[in-house]
Amino acid sequence: MRDFKGSADDFAVGGTGVVTGVSWPVFKWSGGRDDKYFARMGKNVLSVYETENFSLVDKKSIKVENIMDFSWSPTDPIISLFVPETGGGNQPARVSLVQIPSKEELRQKNLFSVSDCKMYWQSNGDYLAVNVDRYTKTKKSTYTGFELFRIKERDIPIEVLELENKNDKIIAFAWEPKGHRFAVIHGDMPKPDISIYSMRTAQNTGRVSKLTTLKGKQANALFWSPAGRFIVLAGLKSLNGLLEFYNVDDLETMANTEHFYATDVEWDPTGRYVATAVTHHDMENGFNIWSFNGKHLYRILKDSLYQFLWRPRPASFLTAEKEEEIAKNLKKYSKKYEAEDQDVSLLLSEQEQEKRRILKEDWEKWVNQWKQLHEEEKSKRQ
Does the keyword Cytoplasm apply (predicted)? Predict the structure, then answer.
């Protein structure tokens, strides 16, 4: 084991001409099942460590002037890092992708007039969305756009996505788990718009496409089903717990409902149920359970509720390709298992019939024994 000791200044980030501070969490673990690396930022450096011995990869940190943020791919040893502008704009901001342990820079994108930058990885590490806030020419206001990286494609192509109204504020962003779609809440509260996009459609396999925009929704948070396809558009806390259950495949609303004062939304790992909860509140603490399509199933009130979590599911032994193949051929598999269920049902029915036949025979045998005894004792009764 190893201790990392020092003052707050020893863990500060940034560099010359850039505001410094401690970025939390200090340590970030790499994605995937191997858990081979973790990393932390320092002033002008990114330090990557091996989990096996807690030592620096190649015994030295990566020098990155003015680094302000970084994020691991959820599945691969790839780091995305953000460096802000310096020198009054003479040195542009940039987002870079760095491979570990080789420390090779896989891709870089320079960004100009940047006010802020947030990075969102898709759960399979297939895509990276970079939400970039830029200053207008007057520097008095900002506008928003996205840089979309296709990580698994050759040369990692980058697309620029701009909202129809570039002045819209981004309130929430969420990738579809294991999917190619994402949702964005944008505009002004309390009724912003919600747009849903796809990184590939039948018409545009290599271009981002907008699927729909839902106008004037009282929502401030997005919660995709772990299985994809369904999403809950939630208006939490100040928006009084309004909930919309939406089917992204069919682009239609399945249910509109509410859980007053709701503060949390949690999908169960199967994607079949949704829990909404009120926590840390003076009244109405408790949780509701809903079906995936918004049917209310249970309501449990608790005097004091601080957290709600579903029990995790073990990781699947199936490959992503096999899961996709099963999803595509679900009707074929359904027919197969329905036939097997019917066979089992018939077998159980035959077994039940045999059990009843034996019971009937035992009953008739018992009755006949008592009839015979009754006849034998007839003379004694006279």
Answer: yes
Name the nearest CA neighbour of 121 among 58, 205, 53, 182: 182
Average of per-residue pLDDT values in the chain: 90
CB of 93 within 8 A of CB of 115? no
Angle at 263 between CA 22 and CA 237, to 5 degrees: 95
Cα torsion for 129, 31, 309, 317, to the nearest 10°?
Answer: 110
φ/ψ bin of 311: left (φ > 0), alpha (ψ from -120 to 50), beta (otherwise): beta
Position 260, amino acid: F
Of how many residues is the chain composed? 382
Residues 261-302: tens digit of each pLDDT? 999 999 999 999 999 999 988 778 999 999 999 999 999 999
Write the DSSP string, 72-94.
E-SSSSEEEEEE--BGGGTB-EE
d(CA 4, CA 25): 14
CA angle 88, 92, 95 (to 5 degrees): 140
Q: Which residue has the tokens 């019971």?
A: 359
CA 218 to chain centre: 21
Digit-coded pLDDT (tens) for 10-41: 777 765 555 567 777 889 999 877 789 999 99
Which of 25-29, 45-49, 209-213, 297-301 is the least confident region?
25-29
| CA Rg value for the chain | 30
